[in-house]
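Think of the structure tokens as a kind of shorthand, similar to the way a musician reads notation: each symbol stands for something richer, in this case the local conformation of the backbone. In the example below we present two proteins back to back. Begin with the first one, reading the sequence and then the tokens, and try to describe in your own words what changes along the chain.
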Amino acid sequence: MKTTKNIVLALDVHGGDHGAAVTIPAALDVLASQANVEIILCGIKKEIEPHLPNQDPGRLTVVEASHALASDARPVEALRRGRGSSLWLSMELVANERAHACVSAGSTAAMLALGVKLLGMLPGIERPALMSRIPSASGHTSLLDLGANLNVNANQLVQFAIMGSVASPLDDGSLPTVALLNVGHEDSKGDSVVREAHGMLNELPINYTGFIEGHDIFAGKADVAVCDGFSGNLILKSGEGLAKMFFRHLELAFRSGLPARIGGVLAKPALERVLERFEPTKHNGAPLLGLRSVVVKSHGNADRKAMGHAILEALEEARRQVPQQIELMIQDYSIEADV
């Protein structure tokens, strides 16, 4: 990395449903609010230029891409056709130490494939894991994996727990509580993989609290919840769907008659505070943990505000040097990846 006091972020302009119409305004918002940040836009120049301001905002550069990968690009396609794409270039800038982190709203599968190829895995980590912070009674709970690994072994669950512990610091500096998702709290519950991981985690000096069930995640019973990607993705999507249904029914209830409308007016300030906590834009940006550098996945349908949050998430991970911290902890615990 060239000597600079700024955090440099590479942004895949074309990732997601809205492309440059969202990613570039979001980047400009971040530059306006963050003094020590530079952003490199990776994309097709003719599609970038209409969204750039007339006056150069500074700390913004463009690296021209030859094409963009499809939003549903599979790993094989990403590896075969990815070279020169906006996603490839954003990761290549990080690999070549021209940027500290990259953000994309593109295909998760493509990001995984190119992340492993161009950036490589941290020693002791077998697979990357996606992590997101979801609303809970205690504020939020970091959940991983969210779908990068549908089938995992005990060692990988242990690695996810360590990565989640490092990536989810508490404000008071104490270690976050880490729990393993299971069908019950008893040691005898769950399949052999979960029980084996449970035994291994009990031997590590992280703040491991044992098993939790699905409802415990939303109750805030742990700061970090660990599971396979199949379960994590189901929990995330089910939670999003339940929240939408609840607030839709609440809206209909307050429109059902004059007394309900009056009640809705009176309850509006309190409801707005609740809605703000569940605002999806505030939880956008899932770090892809386990790679040698910071990579953050944005939701594909992210709007300007949500994309800005994903960029801020990547900047914070880069400032905290999360990959380096994970590597140090893996070394301290003498964890080795199965090859």
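Once you have a description of the first chain, move to the second and do the same.
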Amino acid sequence: MSEPVFARQMFRRAAIYGAIVLPPMYLAPLPPSGAETFLGFVGLALVFQVMFWIIGGDPVKYRALMPVAIAEKLVFGLPALVLFARGLTTPPVAVFAGIDLALALGFLIAWRRTPVVH
């Protein structure tokens, strides 16, 4: 069985990226309402970086988690781009949404390339 190098690199790099870009959001000014939602989003996103790291450690073993990882990227990326298209959010949000959609595509490719073990 070939080593799933692409999946390993895809998930490990995604985890490193998230671990770099998410923590500074804790220092951002909190919205006047919904601060708990904002902080919950950041915290949950950080938890997913741990999951990405684990998947990257053994993609074949954790292949079943890859669709969940794809969904995690889509639930922010798609709505954020729709909001941007409607003029309801800023260009930086759209950039990060685009990055999440690119990561979702990478995760999908990794999932398709990773062998199923029975």
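Compare your description with these statements about the second chain. Residues 35-57 form the longest helix (23 residues).
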